[in-house]
Amino acid sequence: MVWAWLIPVISFAVVPLIILFGKRLPGKGSPLAILAILAGFAIFWVVFAGFLSATPETEGCATGVGTKALTCNFQITWFEAGIPGADTSGFDRIEIAWGITIDPLTVSMLGLATFVALMVQIYSLGYMHGDPRIDWYYAFHALFIASMLTLVLADNFLLLYVAWELVGLCSYLLIGFWHERPEPREAAKKAFIVTRIGDVGLLVGILLLWSHVGSFSMSETFAAVAGGELSDGVVTFSALLLFLGAMGKSAQFPFHVWLPDAMEGPTPVSALIHAATMVAAGVYLVARAFPIFSASDTAMLVVATIGLITALGAATIALVATDLKRILAYSTISHLGLMMLSLGAAGYTAAIFHLLAHGFAKALLFLGAGSVMHSTEELDVRRMGGLRKVMPVTAILFSIGALSLGGIPILAGFWSKDEILIAVNDHLNPVFIVLTLLTAFLSALYMARAMFVVFYGKFAEHFEHVHDAPPTMSITMGLLAVFAVFFGLAALNWPGAFDGIGYFIIYEKGHGLEFVVWLAAVSTVLAVGAFIYGYLAYARKSVNLEGARRTFALPLKIAEGRYYVDELYQWTIDRVVLSLSRFVAWFDRALVNDVGINGPGDITRGLGEKLKYHVTGYVYSYVLVMALGLIGLAIFWWLVSR
Amino acid sequence: MVPLVAFQLLSAALFAIGIYGVMARRSAVLIVMSIELMLNAVNINLIAAASHLEGTGRWANFDGHIIAIFIITVAAAEVGLGMAIILRMYRNRSTVNVDEINLMKW
User: Fold this and answer.
1) Is the separation of the CB atoms in A526 and A518 below 8 Å?
2) Which of A102, A539, A565, A584 has its CA at 20 to 30 Å from residue A227's CA atom?
3) Relative orientation angle of helices A324-344 and A430-455, to the nearest 10 degrees
4) pTM above 0.90, yes or no
5) Among residues A34, A419, A72, A108, which one has the least CA distance to residue A280?
6) Do residues A175 and A278 touch, judged by C-beta distance below 8 A?
7) Is the CB of residue A140 less than 8 Å from the CB of residue A174?
8) Among A149, A159, A109, which residue's Cα sits nearest to residue A15?
9) A346: closest CA among A295, A385, A402, A417?
10) How would you class B61 by CB atoms within 10 Å of its CB: exposed for 0-12, middle for 13-18, buried for 19 or more?
11) What angle do CA A565, A568, A571 make, to 5 degrees?
12) Hey, what domains does chain B have and what are their CATH numbers?
């Protein structure tokens, strides 16, 4: 189990190899990256098996603080600072450790991340075929996944923060991968800056915790919180600061604006970002720091509320978006909102379960969208239709992903969404469950729209010569589809083999499969109803949408305008930030530069300009001054000595 | 015995001539000679003052003599150095007119 540290390290190691020698390697170094992540995936299974057989008596393992789940820590000291030999419990000396922690949360994330990354990298062989910078593409991919794996393995906040920023950097590099065009450049900058704003909150939160606990170690911090060593205010405030970082990374309102723009990157990158890395990091952070969040009711309510706003708002936008990738992007934002909502409702298991189920389905959907885009070079759903005639494999696999994410029973999305609904119903105000059910309905509806508009209905004749996905792409999609279908069965209790995910990913205590009949019935009716309605409206066209469009003209316009959040930001930047910047620039130029810096310089130079004329170059003038000076001194001396 | 003031007048006159020479001449050689004149004016002043010291006789105090010998030594060295500089100056610029030596001027 201790060898888990190798999983990210192998991928890290191939990055410089690909960058330095990629041009000369077969396939420009892409097999190297794939082999690295394949090795990581293999080691994951070893770690998983080791973890399943571990008990609290195993070396390095103990019952986790706060989570009450089995947690194994392995660490080495990185460096020490402070007074040598002093006590490490206070602030006189601090030990910073590189360490890994392995608990159910980490194991789940490791499995998801390595599997999705492996699929995405194999898929990219087909998708990125012939790209001139394929070596850089795979180097960034390897770095990206290595950073994410480090992030989920980190056992202290400092290492987590380092990995966190690396993930941000890699998303910047990959979103802006086609930097020859201006849009990816802008999108990459936007993603980096928006997430950075949240990251500042995360950093301050980590330092705040450190200043009260005296250690970056997660287990020590959680123990301090559980032991009541921190005041309620500090716990709430640091939880909110950590959540700020999570909001940036997981694209929660009002930091969601970068994610739709990030669609400018290559589609496999979108799949990776949306399923396994980047956006999962925010949800992971909240889940990882759950002992801190759950200690503060205020923080939990904020998390739930932000999650609900994000989920509902993004779902409505997804319903009216016309760009296939953007529909999926808003769908991701919406589902991330649901995960946050679930965490805020104390639904720890449900959130992680949904993160995994959503990860498989969303990766599948993105790879399907990438396949469509690869073949048709078209993303506007209004110009598509009936594509199942020319790309049947993609159509079937995309439909599986859409149905799974839409929450059709027995597919993975159904089980995880059900868990979330139960958590929300149990722990929050009734308003929340109503709006969550509405979100669930919208989520099924926009998935139905994406699926039926693109692949069913009337065939768009101009795509007659389009071909289906090559094997590297269809096989990886098929493997993801298997998980999108069957992963939900992990929720069930399998006597003798597996108690169900409720006993694996636990917080404080395990619980079996919870099944509230009326909630499951309502959500099933909503999901199936949404898909039937979607079929009638978008594929058969037997339901005329014009009437509804006229009735809801204003809400439609607002949703199509994406609630004008981007415009609001643009206005704020133009009018407030830039005005302030101009004033600061003027202050700097006029006062600091002209008066403060150039002022003394100008005085000295002006004085020199005036004084230089005494240097005549004629000997007699010097001698005259010397003689006059001598006489002057003599007279002075004579006067003094009298 | 010749009064001290006579020596001092001679010394002052020589010094004034020296200053005048440095100020009025254009030739570097003549300026060096004028400087020598001023040095010798100082020497006369020093020896005269030393030999007119009151008290225990003419040779009671050697300070003035010693400084005079120092000045003579330094003056010899200075002439050698000065002449060498003037020689180089003439080689480079074909003139020893100090008004034309103005490379360092603004």
Assistant:
1) no
2) A102
3) 160
4) no
5) A108
6) no
7) yes
8) A149
9) A295
10) middle
11) 150
12) 4-93 (1.10.287.3510)
Residues 594-613 of chain A whose Cβ lies under 8 A from any Cβ of chain B: 612-613
Rg (CA), chain B: 18
Find the length of chain B: 106
Contacts of A627 in chain B (CB under 8 A): 19, 23
Cβ-nearest to B23 among A612, A613, A620: A620
Instruction: Work out the number of other CB atoms within 10 angstroms of the CB of residue A204.
Output: 16
Q: What share of chain B is helix, strand, coil (3-state, %, to 5)?
A: 75, 0, 25
Q: What is the pLDDT of residues A443-467, one digit of tens each?
A: 998 888 888 888 887 777 777 777 7
Contact A623 B104 (CB under 8 A): no
Residue-wise pLDDT for A256-308, tens only, equals 888 888 888 888 888 888 887 888 889 999 988 888 888 888 899 999 999 99
| φ/ψ (deg, to 5) at A178 | -90, 65
Confidence band of A416 (pLDDT split at 50, 70, 90): confident
What letter would DSSP give residue A64? P
pLDDT in tens, chain B (106 residues): 778 899 999 999 999 999 899 888 889 999 999 999 999 999 999 988 888 776 656 666 778 889 999 999 999 999 999 999 999 989 988 888 888 887 777 6
Which tokens go with B89? 């100056």
